[in-house]
Amino acid sequence: VFDVVMLNQVLPHLVDLRVFDKFKYVSQMLQEFNRILKPSGILCINTCTHDQLSAVWYNNAMPEACGMLKARTPEIDELKKMLEQTGFTDFTFTKDNEPLQGDNYWRYELCFTENYRAGDAIWSLVGDEEYGKAMMSMKYGLREERDTFDSIAHSTIEKTGHTTQIFCTRV
Fold it and tell me: In which element (H, E) is residue 160 found?
């Protein structure tokens, strides 16, 4: 048995959009966490709300891919319901304004590197045409309207946060 289980940005990778209950595997995983945690054990989940996914500056350039990512990400109220159904209580929700990539999040030009794109699932969901348009849009925005681009990116993260941490306890 474990004292703590921690998940960091995993939930969208467990979703199967081909079945009626697309969050079936998320529920099964939560049941397994309930089984392996000791009583009063803590489950910590780092995830994003749909608003937080929309606030990521490069996601805005890829609306179709962002929509696909949202479809694979349970909203917080839906996730809380699944957690309650599997025996978790004592919820704490914390919004974090610090981007997962740290200072590199604000180094916009890095999005043009393969290494940077490998760090976020949305890049694997974007189609070729949308990818091309997004790259052109971002290059133009960074070259011609950088101050506006930067101001919008900072204000949306300040408003929505970048991620949400959920802490709950096994009964």
Answer: helix 146-160
